[in-house]
Structure formats: structure tokens, C-alpha cells
Amino acid sequence: MHTIRTFFAIELPTSTLEQIEKESYDLKNSIPGKIKWVAFGSMHITIKFIGEFNPEHQSSIQKDLRSHLSGLGEIKLSFGKIGVFPNKKNPRVAWLGLNDSGQLIELAQIVNLVSSNYGYPQEKRSFSPHLTIGRVRTNVSSRDRELIGQMITNYRFVKIDPFTTNRLSFIKSLLTPKGPVYSTLFETPL
Fold first, then answer.
1. pLDDT score of 174
2. 130-136 and 93-98 as β-strands: parallel, antiparallel, unpaired?
3. 54-85 tens-digit pLDDT
4. Contacts of 105 (CB under 8 A, 6+ apart)
5. In the structure, what pLDDT confidence band is assigned to residue 157 with cuts at 50, 70 and 90?
């Protein structure tokens, strides 16, 4: 069986991406070479990572999602804080967190349930709505990791305007030596 690597996500408006780029400029320049920053055109809010997906399921899962998500409505989103996973003493991922994300959590629960009907495992961890902005490189010393964790968690974004979304995207991820290449397979209205 031929599979493709996929995930469900909320794609960000260009104006939001531009604001994130502007607001993170100083942070990126203060930590040169230690973090692989996510390219702004590749940023998205992952709702559920599927991994290996059977393309034969695409039309059925799209139809089921359309049915389950109709009426969820437009979701208003805003970024509230910056942080790191798993913790600031040993950061691996830098992220922007979302405020008041109840609707996003509901969306993730529905996607988790519908995709599990096709044999894709349900996520065991609680959904933590965030936007990954960078990953700490593996060759960074533990001392530098701790400094990076402090710098990121102390960084203050001036302002990123709230935005709304009314669609969920299903995205194919092709891994290449230069990084992942994303292509949207379908969008489902909310």
C-alpha cells in the first residue's frame, strides 16, 4: 500500500505571517545558528499529525469531516505568549501559544475522533494549541540550551493582530534535505 505523510492544520493569513516575521526578527538574530527557525511560508497550527496516510481514505474522510465540522463556524485566534517544549532548562521547540482556544480544542477533538474511525490512532496527549516557530539544533550544549530557554521565555512580542479562520486544511508533507515541502490536499469549511 502506498501512503503519504500528512497532517491537519490551520493555515495562517499572510498578514499574520508577516507580523510574526517582523516581531521575531530580534529574537532570531539574538540566537544565531542554534535554532532551526521555521520558514514563514511553512508555518501552520497543527491540529493533528496523521503520519502515514492511505490516499484511498481521502474522499471518505473529507466527507465525514465536512459533516462533523459544519456549523462549528469561524474561529477567532490570537497569540498570547511565547514558550518552549518540554521546558526552559532543556528546550527543543520554540512556540507561540494561542489565547482562548476552546474552539480549536473542540476542532482537534472532532478531527481526532473522525480520523480514528479510519484506523489512525487517537492522540493520547492533551491538545496544546501552538505555532511552532523553531527547533533547537541537536548539537547545542546543555548550557546553551538553558540560555536559549531563558531568552525565548523572556522575549516579548509587541503585537500580533487577532485573525479568524473558517477552514481546516489537510496537508501533505514531503520530507526533503532542504526541509519539508507542504501541499494542501483539501480544505474543509467550518
1. 94
2. antiparallel
3. 999 999 999 999 999 998 999 999 998 999 99
4. 127, 129
5. confident
Q: 28: closest CA among 158, 133, 139?
A: 133
Burial of 81 (C-beta count, 10 Å sphere; 0-12/13-18/19+): middle
Longest dimension (CA), the chain: 50
Query: Is omega for the bond preceding 91 within 30 degrees of 0, making it cis?
Result: no
**Residue type for position 53:** F
Sheet holding 35-37, edge to edge: 35-37, 130-136, 93-98, 79-85
**In one letter, which amino acid is 172?**
K
CA-to-CA separations, 92 to 51, 116, 137, 156, 172, in angstroms, rounded: 20, 28, 8, 19, 24
Backbone angles phi, psi at 43, to 5 degrees: -70, 140
CB 189 within 8 A of CB 167: yes
- Closest to 50 measured CA to CA, from 116, 104, 94, 98: 116
**Rounded CA separation 117/154 (Å):** 42
